[in-house]
Design a protein that fits this description.
- The complex is a heterodimer.
- By secondary structure, chain A is mainly alpha-helical.
- Chain A has helices at 2-23, 34-87, 91-112, 116-121, 123-138, 145-166, 176-179, 183-188, 199-205, 232-247, and strands spanning 169-172, 221-224.
- Chain A is elongated, with a radius of gyration of 46 Å.
- Chain B has a domain at 28-86.
- Chain B starts with a helix and ends with a helix.
- Classes of the chains: A mainly alpha, B mainly alpha.
């Protein structure tokens, strides 16, 4: 009997403990006390007051800035109109100039990435850009520093491209015994003119070194002028040479 | 047996007290709704303020750029005047 009572006592204890845990603050964490509610209400109201103040201030700032921005737009437009009127050009002229310049800048940037050999295949285009850029530099619009500076900077790049194009091809003379180098044979080489009859071009292009076209010396660095046909002067020099050779006694000049 | 009875009585008082205290200090549903409305208002205002701060920063940037553009244009005008005077 005593044991039954003790058992019953323990069961009731366990039940009450479970009940205490269930209703204790830790067991009902989501439940807010009145004090906490009051604190949160006060804090929310204060935050709202503060945010409304910030909002009003910001709205004022934004309105002010918008007005400033609109006024600046009008001022810029008026300034540009006055500038273009001074030069006697229209806004459309400026836009067209700017567009053309931008397109040339992009193309020159592409050309700058090319090798010298690739550049040679775009020689005509580079010359065209150079010539157009020189015209643009003379235009009234180029008097506006922001365009003048762009034109000058682009011209410097185009000049560098032109310089790459003008890099003269050279040939270093070897020995007769080993290379059989004479003007005729040099001109005949595939990477020179691939045409022996072009030899007077080398002669005339190197008059400072070559006094007699039959005499060239090993290690001379000869300029190989560009072109695939002889000029009038070169033809005439060749004629004089053949004439002289024909009238000279046999064996002379060899 | 007597000890157990004493323990049971104490435990009943304790749990009863706890239940009573936890029930009586809770805010009502209406009060909770009021707090929720305020918290929603705070969130909405915070969003508005953030947006306005962004707008303000953008406008400040635009104004600075436009000021630069205007100064550039004025400098261009001066340069052109000088260039034409030559």
């Amino acid at each position: 009997m005593r044991q039954t009572h003790r058992k019953f006592g323990w069961i009731v204890c366990l039940f009450l403990t479970a009940l205490m845990i269930a209703v204790s603050p830790t067991g009902a964490q989501e439940k807010m006390s009145k004090d906490e509610w009051q604190v949160q209400m006060t804090s929310a109201k204060a935050r709202i007051t503060d945010l409304e103040k910030q909002q009003a201030g910001l709205k004022g700032d934004v309105t002010g800035l918008q007005g400033q921005s609109d006024k600046l737009d009008a001022d810029i437009r008026a300034c540009e109109d006055a500038l273009y009127a001074m030069l006697g050009v229209s806004r459309a002229d400026i836009e067209a100039f700017d567009k053309e310049l931008s397109s040339m800048e992009n193309r020159v940037a592409e050309l700058q990435r090319m090798s010298d050999a690739e550049l040679m295949t775009h020689k005509d285009e580079i010359i065209r850009i150079d010539s157009r850029l020189k015209e643009m530099a003379k235009s009234k619009i180029a008097m506006i520093p922001r365009y003048g500076d762009r034109v000058n900077s682009l011209q410097a790049k185009v000049d560098a491209l032109m310089k790459s194009l003008q890099k003269e091809k050279t040939y270093t003379v070897g020995t007769w015994s080993r290379d059989r180098d004479c003007l005729w044979n040099i001109a005949k080489k595939k990477d020179i003119y691939a045409n022996a009859w072009m030899w007077p071009k080398i002669w005339q292009g190197n008059r400072d070194k070559i006094k007699d076209p039959d005499v060239i010396k090993p290690n001379w660095v000869l300029k190989i002028p560009e072109g695939n046909e002889l000029s009038k002067d070169e033809k005439s020099a060749a004629r004089r040479y053949y004439h002289k050779k024909a009238s000279a006694p046999s064996g002379a000049g060899e | 047996m007597h000890k157990i009875r004493l323990f049971l009585i104490a435990a009943l008082f304790l749990s009863g007290g706890l239940i009573l205290s936890s029930c009586s200090s809770s805010p009502s549903d209406e009060e909770m709704a009021q707090l929720n409305r305020l918290q929603d208002q705070v969130r909405s205002l915070e969003n508005d303020v953030r947006k306005l701060q962004g707008d303000k920063a953008n406008l400040e940037k635009q104004v600075a750029e436009k000021n630069g553009k205007l100064q550039q244009c004025q400098a261009d005008q001066e340069a052109v005047k000088k260039g034409m005077g030559k």
